[in-house]
Amino acid sequence: MSNDDLSPIDATGLPALEARLKEDLAFLCYPGKDWVPPRDGVSDVVIIGGGMCGTLAWFALATGGMKNVRVLDRAPKGREGPWLSYARMETLRSPKALTGPAFGHGALTFQAWYRAQFGAKSWQDLDKIPRTMWMEYLRWYRDVLDVPVENSVSVDHVEPQGDLLRLSVSGATHETILTRKLVFATGRDGTGGPNIPAFIDDLPRHLWAHSADDIDFSDLRGKRVAVIGVGASAVDNAAEALEHGAAEVRHLIRRKDMPTINKMMGIGSFGFTAGFAEMDDAWRWRFMQYSFATQTPSPRGSTLRVSRHPNAFFHFGKETTRITQKQDSAEISFADGTSYDADFVILGTGFVIDPMARTEFGDTAGEIQLWQDVYTPPAGEESADLGRFPYLNSDFTFREKTPGTAPWLKHVYCFNYGASASLGKVSGDIPGISDGAAWLSRAIAASLYSEDIEKHWKGMQDYDKPELLGDEWEATELETGAQKREGQVA
Asked: Which of 86, 204, 357, 361 is most buried as measured by Cβ atoms within 10 A of its Cβ?
């Protein structure tokens, strides 16, 4: 179907769409039958993160009849995820028609939500999804599904308690939560944190920020700003600085050339999504390492947003080796022997996967098995960053580095960017997120069921509701051949 074939959605707008969604879900018997035996004072699943991944994970579990689930998010309501904090792009990179977290429901797509409000013609004219509008859609998604996110709640520590997990939380509530399963739906930095290179160690904090920080860009008016990196976050932060009146913004780029091709986008398909986790380690590593080495380019629109400013500059072959304070500025030294003085430095260096950075695990973080623990790449395919990704089981759960040291990790699910090296792009990026949620919910359901197998067996034996009441038939005797012959003789 072409865009010209699109018919307008009912002019009554969102109320009509919501009624349609409610009916569609009812036709599919949503929510699923509640089948998990309850335990007093125990949640079946706790999801950390109430953004796209967390709300979708809840929806997938509810669809499968798992209802004793809590969703916790440290942000205030309506500010979950990166969209109103460190995400500073004007529009999403993803094509507007991707179904994202719709989980197979057409009425739950961004397209349906948008067209219900603005019509088919406006949809045809829309190029990319504005970032803030995507957040509006996710708020609606949460509300229309009635996802019970508990906001301003932070999970501080996780530890085993018998066959359960004990969570210490703070914020809007201070309590201890017992749960059978724990899902980290914590986004891009969900298994680590911002990548802070060592060359910044000697620079006072007031002279620099990471692109994920809460930056007051109005303070950069009239200043010389250096942005290290040229990925999406680096470019978006450069644009913000320029638009807030920075005297100049200089991208300091280690590479010799600008990355221009998104290799992962070129091979995206249902086959890749379904098949990645089935590959052997060598092939999974090869795909991911090549993607890292070629680097995902910043979106065209974001790059033009920077380059349209005459005081924006892109400097290639500038590998930063050291940054030191020079009076009230930062002196940036490069591997080629040159240097540059800036009034403020923004690190567009992305995120690092490092379970040790997740304080929730405590000392157990060191017991999480990583790719570097199990796989040695061939020459030319080395990647320290990729080696720090967790080496997950096929059900999203963490593995122990040494068997027996932390068996409770099999109850903790990595449904965030950290899963991509093991299972592919199914737990963070918009294109494959619904496939990942379906996969996750089946894995959790299977584990919960097997753990309660004795109860389910007893439930089968105890079930005594008859389908036949005894009045549906009348018994008769079957005459044998001898009885028939005797009757004939008589």
From this structure: 361
3-state secondary structure of 24: helix
3-state SS class at 158: strand
Enclosing H/E stretch for 385: helix 384-387
Cβ(398)–Cβ(391) below 8 Å: no
Residues 353, 288 contacting (CB under 8 angstroms): no
Report CA-CA distances (Å) from 161 to 40, 50, 158, 396, 409.
15, 25, 10, 21, 12
Greatest CA separation found in the chain? 128
Per-residue model confidence (pLDDT) at position 264: 85
> DSSP per residue over 415-464, as a string?
-SGGGHHHH-S-SSSTTTHHHHHHHHHHHHHHHHHHHTHHHHHHHHHH--
Tokens read off for 204: 């006072």
Q: Which helix (H) or strand (E) holds 487?
A: helix 481-489
The token pair at 229 is: 């990196």
Dihedral of the alpha carbons of 234, 240, 245, 251, in degrees to the nearest 10: 10
Q: Looking at residue 268, what is its pLDDT? A: 83
Query: Rounded to 5 degrees, what are φ and ψ at 478?
Result: -95, 120
Give the span between the Cα atoms of 169 and 147, in whole angstroms.
20
Q: Identify the pLDDT of residue 483.
A: 67
Q: Which of 349, 281, 264 is nearest to 94 (CA)?
A: 264
Tell me if 441 sits within 8 A of 61, measured CB to CB: yes
Q: Contact at 8 Å (CB) between 440 and 415? A: yes
Cα–Cα separations (whole angstroms), residue 268 to 93, 238, 323, 422: 14, 29, 39, 16
Rounded CA separation 67/30 (Å): 11
Candidates 15, 251, 56, 228; CA nearest to 138 is 56
**CA 314/CA 303 separation, integer angstroms:** 11
| The pLDDT value given to residue 173 | 84
- Residue 483 burial (CB count, 10 A): 11
Give the Å distances, CA to CA, from 67 to 71, 91, 443: 11, 35, 15
- The mean pLDDT values, 10 residues at a time, for the chain of 490 residues are 45 89 97 96 98 97 98 96 93 93 98 96 96 97 98 96 96 93 90 91 97 96 97 96 98 95 87 94 96 92 96 98 96 97 97 84 93 97 95 97 95 96 92 96 98 97 95 89 66
What is the distance between the alpha carbons of residues 63 and 29, in angstroms, rounded to a whole number? 8
Tell me if 174 sits within 8 A of 167, measured CB to CB. no
Computed over its alpha carbons, how large is the radius of gyration of the chain? 28
Instruction: Give yes or no for a cis peptide into 31 (omega within 30° of 0).
Output: yes
How many C-beta atoms lie closer than 10 Å to residue 292's C-beta? 14
Nearest-angstrom CA–CA distance, 288 and 246: 36
